[in-house]
Amino acid sequence: MNFNRWLRRFSSSLEKFLFYATLGFLGLMVVVQAVMVKTDIGYYLNSVHRLEGEPYELDKEKHSKQEDFSGVLKDLDYSRYTGEEIYEVTLKVIPEVDNLKVIINEQERKVIEGKTVTVEVSAGDLIEIYGEANKEVPVTVRVASSPGLVSPEEGKEVLAFGDYEMVGWVVPQNN
Question: What is the dihedral of CA 42, 47, 50, 52, to 10 degrees?
Fold first, then answer.
């Protein structure tokens, strides 16, 4: 038997096998994705579907200590993960107006009466301004102070035209 002929026959049969295996794999992938879209079946096959919309809570008893690279167990700071730490953000309004509201996570938190207002926020909160401002002359809202936060940064200015205006997401500094 000639080695070249055997090699050609073997490589052509291997190529056919790989082609049909790839085609079968792609077909199986399309079928699996179609099954996952159907919610009553995908619910049982995928844990993400089961947990969708439910807040995730860490088991503090089970995960209270973490081993660092040196093998030493250390306590974890859960305030970074659960948003338990409270920060204060002070907003200054120029010119002084009434009927301007501070919205935190789509909920009215405070009404700005006068020139400044201080709101308490947690990591990950969204700060917005809403109110009846003059659409031709906007109101300037400046972040006067935000100690311990990267965002919204002090000095940031937002022009409020009477619609929802985003001041920023609350992002704490890394310790």
Answer: -110
Task: Output the six-digit token pair for 48.
Answer: 């993400």
Kind and range of the H or E element at 170?
none
Q: 173 in helix, strand or coil?
A: coil
CA dihedral 130, 134, 140, 143 (to 10 degrees): -20
Among 143, 166, 141, which Cα is nearest to 153's?
143
Place of tokens 């439910």: 54
116-158 pLDDT per residue, tens: 888 888 888 888 888 766 666 778 888 888 788 888 888 888 8
CB atoms inside a 10 Å sphere around CB 67:
9
Name the burial class of residue 151, with classes exposed (0-12), middle (13-18) and buried (19+) by CB atoms within 10 angstroms of its CB.
Answer: middle
pLDDT at 60 over 50: yes
User: Is the distance from CB of 34 to CB of 45 less than 8 angstroms?
Assistant: no
